[in-house]
Amino acid sequence: MTLPFEVTVCVNAIWKVLSSDVIKHSCYYHRVVKKSNATVAYAFGTQISQGGVDAEIQGNYSVCLFKDGERYVIALIGVFVPKKMNGMLCQGIVCHLSSWIELTANSSSDVRSSLSRSHCRFTVELDGSNANLLASQCLSTAKSMHEVISSRVMSFLEKVLVEEDWKRNGRPMRIVV
After folding, report:
1. In 13, 49, 73, 77, which residue has its Cα 20 to 30 A from 118's Cα atom?
2. Pick the residue with more confidence: 130 or 89?
3. Nearest partner of 94 among 83, 103, 110, 104, judged by Cα
4. Which residues contact residue 45 at a Cβ distance below 8 angstroms, ignoring those fewer than 6 apart?
5. Residue 61 has pLDDT above 70, yes or no
6. Residue 120 and residue 143 in contact, taking contact as beta carbons nearer than 8 Å
7. d(CA 23, CA 116)
8. What secondary structure does DSSP assign to 107-173, as a single string?
9. Where do the domains of the chain lie?
C-alpha cells in the first residue's frame, strides 16, 4: 500500500499511536511495564459489552520499533486471557496476537510517499472442559474489541499523521479539497 507521507512521518506517527496509552480509555486498568526508545510493554484489563458478548479480558502486549537501513518495522505482540464471557468463568483459553507493519520510502515516485505492508495473526489456544464451548464467544469478543479499538486508534492516527507531517514539512498555507 502506498501512503501519501514521507516514511519518517509514517513511522513517527504509527509509533506514537501504538506506543501511546490511547487504549487506556477502554480499560479498567492499563499500565506501562517497561519503556525504552524502541520498546513499550503494557499490562491491561478490560470489560467489553458489545455484539451480544459481555467479556472481561486481561493481558499483556508489547510494541517494538526496528530500523534496518531505510526499512522500518513496528511489531505488536500480545497475549490475552479471557476471564469471563457472558457470565461464565473462563479457564483454558489464551489468545495470541502478532502483527507488524513494514515501512519504506517509495523511491519509484516523484512525490514523497511511503510503501507499507503488514501482517496480523490472531490465534486461540484451548485447554479445558468449557474451552470449546467458549471458543466462538472468544472469537466474537476479539472481533468486537478489534472494531472498538481500531476505530479509536485510526481516529488518533489520522490526527497524528497530520501533526507529524506539519512538524516535518511545515503547516500548509491553505488546504485544497
Report:
1. 49
2. 89
3. 83
4. 27, 28, 29, 30, 56, 57, 58, 59
5. yes
6. no
7. 23
8. TT-SS--EEEEEEEEEEEEE-STTHHHHHHHHHHHHHHHHHHHHHHHHHHHHHHHHHHHHHHH---S
9. 2-169
Q: How far apart are CA 168 and CA 127, in angstroms?
A: 50
Coil vs helix vs strand at 89: strand
Residue with cell 500548509: 172
Residues in the chain: 177
Q: Take residue 117 and report the three cell numbers written for it.
A: 505492508
Q: Count of CB atoms within 10 A of residue 172's CB? A: 10
pTM (two decimals):
0.82
**2-169 carries CATH number 1.10.10:** no
pLDDT in tens, 77-116: 999 998 988 788 887 888 899 999 999 998 887 778 889 9
